[in-house]
Amino acid sequence: MTDLSAFPIATRWPASHPDRIQLYSFPTPNGVKVSIALEELGVPYEAHAVNIGKNESWTPEFLSLNPNGKIPAMIDPDGPGGKPIGLFESGAILLYLTDKTGRLVPADPARRYETIQWVFFQMASIGPMFGQVGFFHKFAGREIADKRPLARYRDESRRLIGVLDARLKGRSWIMDDDYTIADISMLGWVRNLTGFYQARELVGFDDFSHVAAWLERGLARPAVQRGLTIPARG
């Protein structure tokens, strides 16, 4: 039987199936990236809900695996060399899963790096900007009288959607006909911007028809639909 005792996180969220990948997450845009990837790959895994509303990601057990205190985090009991490996940061986990399986990324080395650059585009640009729009438009930031921060993040978010829209013109997916981790990294964020963050009109989302069509295609995938609700919020 696989022994996960070296990972303190497994004491707070014990594994029923320690031989499977252990995912510690919550269904946020960053969290569902990994759930969607695992569902697309069909890799056996066990999902544990780390309730960020209860600050569970700041507990010592979670921080022992992810010192950044953000979801998701993951343990693969069958890591490199057959040894368990713990990982944090969603982009790194996506890359790990593609290396492990050889899927969800083009085989050609040049196209692989092109895919990775779009994952980084999400991590460095879309994620932080959309998150700030959500804070200033939907959450506590909306109470701030000075609307210049909201305007700054709105304008930058609109610019980034334009970058994505230009990329998707004439393409089904970010990498042409190849559905990859680049798409997976962004679907949850664009969905949240237009839905949960209620910022569709704010950023003029309907001006970007290629992104809108891509989002619709992505959300129609059964694995995406499943991944968006894993782990359950309870």
From TrEMBL:
- What are the GO MF terms of this UniProt record? peroxidase activity
Q: Which residues form the GST N-terminal domain?
A: 18-105
Query: CDD domains given for it?
Result: GST_C_Ure2p_like, GST_N_Ure2p_like
Q: Which residues form a coiled coil?
A: none
Q: Does the keyword Oxidoreductase apply?
A: yes
Keyword annotations of the record: Oxidoreductase, Peroxidase
The record's EC number reads 1.11.1.-, 1.8.4.-
**What Pfam families does this protein map onto?**
GST_C, GST_N
Please report the stretch or stretches of sequence annotated as the GST C-terminal domain: 108-234
Q: Which family does it belong to?
A: Belongs to the GST superfamily.
Protein name per UniProt:
Disulfide-bond oxidoreductase YfcG
